[in-house]
């Protein structure tokens, strides 16, 4: 852990994967055809332009309607051959257009204009109420915390560093959990901003050595780790992880203390502790064998096997996997429905489930933290961290 003061390995050159539904393109980007003439031509042109400016993705169903109406308005009734059975996207578009039958072009233009006008007013009104309903909590530098629909969302917010967890971030998360346990939300959600859920402990935490030297650093880190994990053990409300992308290290291990784990199919789950000269934390030495059986837990925790979202689901670590293209929409629809369930019943049920094991979990957390305190002083750990900063190693 006695590392030179390294602040970063190289210039950031990662790339955020822009995920775009294939259905987005035609309705949003087609230029107006010269054939779209008639009484409401101007309104139609303006509506086509307004679609491009919508703040909120209207969803595939609406985009299909827009596509169909646009085609009908500009080309008339569908007369192209039906796409093959497995050409799913083009088939959906063709079906939507074909369903309009012989609807006159002018009516299609008017319907398109009406549909866009409805979308605009709902997106305007939602952006007007948002500052009140979805108020960003002040006082956090590394997190974005919002409350809406009885859900408190804690979003890790260091996307350029893959949401690696700094010491400040651990502390802010503890404060955020404390606040969420007392606010009037019914459930609390963790997620990450950007392409990663979290790359785990920020390895620069190891470079900030206090006057007491590396022993003091290891001791302080072990206390921080224990306090951090204790907050998850004791959290009284249903806790949900919305795993938007890859997750590494402690961001994976603490999932065993969550009540629901929803994952995008882009997410991966990686606990490369041996590679880093470290040992499991977050109570995973207990929760993982319990969740997935000892053999699979060993593959992850000792041999560092990285799981896909599907594998993590098969092993019980993940509750449900969603396609990345619909992940946010599906998950938040589900959570909004759950958040309306009677609050006290949910919280009492959580207590009954957790209380059986609370004491045991605290003891395991204390033991894992104590062992890690020693590990952080080992050559194996120091070499692994130095390799990361000297660009020799990446997971
Ligand atoms: C006190 C409590 C301790 C609790 C104990 C916890 C243990 C753990 O969590 S163990 C797991 C620790 N995590 C890692 O070892 C991950 C290290 N990171 C990587 O291997 C890679 O960065 C990657 C695979 C996560 C992503 O690779 P890539 O897509 O190529 O992106 P970059 O490497 O270019 O990352 C962009 C940027 O972010 C910095 N960064 C990412 N993760 C970390 C991290 N965990 N710690 C420190 N910095 C990280 C990376 O260095 C890049 O920075 P710049 O070079 O300055 O742009």
From TrEMBL:
Enzyme Commission number(s): 5.3.3.8
Limits of the ACB domain: 40-125
InterPro entries in UniProt: Acyl-CoA-binding_prot_CS (IPR022408), Acyl-CoA-binding_protein (IPR000582), Acyl-CoA-binding_sf (IPR035984), ClpP/crotonase-like_dom_sf (IPR029045), ECH/Chromodomain_protein (IPR051053), Enoyl-CoA_hydra/iso (IPR001753), Enoyl-CoA_hydra_C (IPR014748), FERM/acyl-CoA-bd_prot_sf (IPR014352)
UniProt KW Mitochondrion keyword: yes
Main location: mitochondrion
Pfam families reported in the protein's UniProt record: ACBP, ECH_1
Keywords carried by this UniProt record: Acetylation, Isomerase, Mitochondrion, Peroxisome, Phosphoprotein, Transit peptide
Domain of life, source organism: Eukaryota
PROSITE patterns noted in UniProt: ACB_1 (PS00880), ACB_2 (PS51228)
Transmembrane spans: none
Catalytic activity field: (3E)-octenoyl-CoA = (2E)-octenoyl-CoA; a (3Z)-enoyl-CoA = a 4-saturated (2E)-enoyl-CoA; (3Z)-octenoyl-CoA = (2E)-octenoyl-CoA; a (3E)-enoyl-CoA = a 4-saturated (2E)-enoyl-CoA
Major enzyme class: isomerase
Gene3D superfamilies tied to this protein: 1.20.80.10, 2-enoyl-CoA Hydratase, Chain A, domain 1, Lyase 2-enoyl-coa Hydratase, Chain A, domain 2
Signal peptide per UniProt: none
Organism field: Zalophus californianus
Subcellular location as annotated: Mitochondrion; Peroxisome matrix
Gene Ontology molecular function terms on file: delta(3)-delta(2)-enoyl-CoA isomerase activity; fatty-acyl-CoA binding
Gene Ontology cellular-component terms listed: mitochondrion; peroxisomal matrix
Family assignment from sequence similarity: In the C-terminal section; belongs to the enoyl-CoA hydratase/isomerase family.
Function comment: Able to isomerize both 3-cis and 3-trans double bonds into the 2-trans form in a range of enoyl-CoA species. Has a preference for 3-trans substrates.
Protein name: Enoyl-CoA delta isomerase 2
């Amino acid at each position: 852990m006695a590392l030179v003061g390294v602040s970063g390995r190289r210039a950031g050159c990662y790339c955020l994967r822009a995920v775009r539904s294939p259905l987005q393109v035609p309705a949003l980007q087609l230029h107006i055809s010269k054939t779209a003439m008639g009484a409401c031509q101007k309104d139609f042109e303006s509506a086509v332009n307004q679609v491009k400016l919508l703040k909120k993705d209207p969803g595939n169903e609406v985009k299909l309607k827009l596509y169909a109406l646009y085609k009908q308005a500009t080309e008339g009734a569908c007369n192209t051959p039906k796409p093959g059975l497995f050409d799913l996207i083009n088939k959906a578009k063709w079906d939507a257009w074909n369903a309009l039958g012989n609807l006159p072009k002018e009516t299609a233009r008017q319907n398109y204009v009406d549909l866009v006008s409805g979308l605009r007013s709902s997106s305007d009104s939602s952006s007007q109420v948002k500052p009140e309903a979805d108020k960003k909590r002040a006082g956090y530098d590394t997190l974005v915390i919002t409350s809406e629909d009885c859900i408190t969302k804690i979003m890790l917010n260091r996307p350029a560093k893959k949401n690696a967890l700094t010491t400040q971030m651990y502390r802010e998360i503890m404060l955020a959990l404390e606040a969420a346990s007392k606010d009037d939300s019914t459930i609390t959600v963790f997620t990450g901003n950007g392409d990663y859920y979290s790359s785990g402990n920020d390895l620069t935490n190891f470079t900030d050595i206090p006057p007491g030297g590396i022993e003091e650093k290891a001791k302080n880190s072990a206390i921080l780790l224990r306090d951090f994990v204790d907050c998850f053990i004791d959290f009284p409300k249903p806790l949900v992880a919305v795993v938007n992308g890859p997750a590494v290290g402690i961001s994976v291990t603490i999932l065993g203390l969550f009540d629901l784990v929803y994952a995008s199919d882009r997410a991966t789950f990686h606990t490369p502790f041996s590679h880093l000269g470290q040992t499991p934390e977050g109570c995973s030495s207990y929760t993982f064998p319990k969740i997935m059986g000892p053999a699979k837990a060993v593959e992850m925790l000792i041999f560092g096997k990285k799981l896909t979202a599907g594998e993590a689901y098969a092993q019980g670590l993940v509750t449900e996997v969603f396609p990345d293209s619909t992940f946010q929409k599906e998950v938040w629809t589900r959570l909004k429905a759950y958040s309306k369930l009677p609050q006290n019943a949910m919280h009492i049920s959580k207590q009954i489930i957790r209380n059986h094991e609370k004491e045991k979990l605290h003891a395991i957390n204390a033991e894992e933290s104590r062992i890690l305190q020693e590990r952080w002083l080992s050559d194996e750990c120091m070499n692994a961290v130095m390799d990361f900063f000297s660009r020799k190693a990446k997971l």
